[in-house]
């Protein structure tokens, strides 16, 4: 017996493949229902014919869309002076409290954060960012306060080696030669 190739078709006894157009015809259409209205009909505010004339009870049937008929003066009335309310609080710039130099010097010397930064500098650590700015500002202010109060040691600035070299030792050792 010879071999027969398989085909994709189901054959004559399989279910027939219908085209899309025939499938649409065979379906039953859905029942069409009327959509519920949500809100008022469009254009109802412009439809003046539906607005019923107001009866004797004017407040109950008054149309809210129609504004007041009271005339408004376009020129300011001079009889009533304008009331300008005065503020209860006044604005002023904040003034820094003036501290005595001695007190400020004591505050800087007792600053624990500055002491920590000073220890880091003594350990040859390089300060960066906010730490460096804070350290520089406080040390500069400390020098200003020390100069202002006269507590700086100007003698310490003199180099002892320069003093030694400037002295004439020959006169001391040899006499008046």
UniProtKB/TrEMBL annotation:
Residues 1-67 are annotated as: Disordered. The keyword Nucleus does not apply. Belongs to the YihI family. A GTPase-activating protein (GAP) that modifies Der/EngA GTPase function. May play a role in ribosome biogenesis. Residues 43-59 have a biased composition (Polar residues). Signal peptide: none annotated. This is Der GTPase-activating protein YihI. Pfam families: YihI. Keywords: GTPase activation, Ribosome biogenesis. Residues 22-35 have a biased composition (Basic and acidic residues). InterPro entries: YihI. The keyword Lipoprotein does not apply. Interacts with Der. Transmembrane segments: none annotated. It comes from Rheinheimera muenzenbergensis. The lineage of its organism: Bacteria, Pseudomonadati, Pseudomonadota, Gammaproteobacteria, Chromatiales. It comes from the Bacteria.
């Amino acid at each position: 017996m010879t071999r027969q190739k398989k085909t994709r078709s189901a054959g004559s006894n399989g279910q027939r493949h219908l085209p899309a157009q025939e499938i649409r015809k065979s379906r039953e259409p859905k029942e069409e229902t009327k959509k519920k209205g949500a809100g008022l009909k469009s254009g109802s505010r412009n439809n003046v014919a539906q607005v019923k004339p107001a009866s004797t009870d004017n407040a109950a049937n008054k149309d809210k869309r129609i504004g007041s008929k009271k005339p408004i003066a376009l020129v300011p009335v001079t009889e009533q002076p304008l009331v300008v309310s005065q503020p209860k609080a006044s604005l002023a710039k904040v003034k820094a409290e003036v501290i005595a130099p001695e007190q400020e010097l004591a505050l800087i010397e007792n600053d624990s954060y500055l002491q920590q930064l000073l220890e880091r500098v003594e350990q040859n650590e390089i300060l960066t960012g906010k730490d460096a700015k804070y350290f520089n500002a406080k040390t500069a202010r400390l020098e200003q306060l020390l100069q202002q109060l006269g507590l700086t040691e100007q003698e310490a600035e003199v180099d002892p080696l320069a003093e030694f070299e400037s002295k004439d030792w020959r006169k001391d050792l040899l006499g008046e030669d």
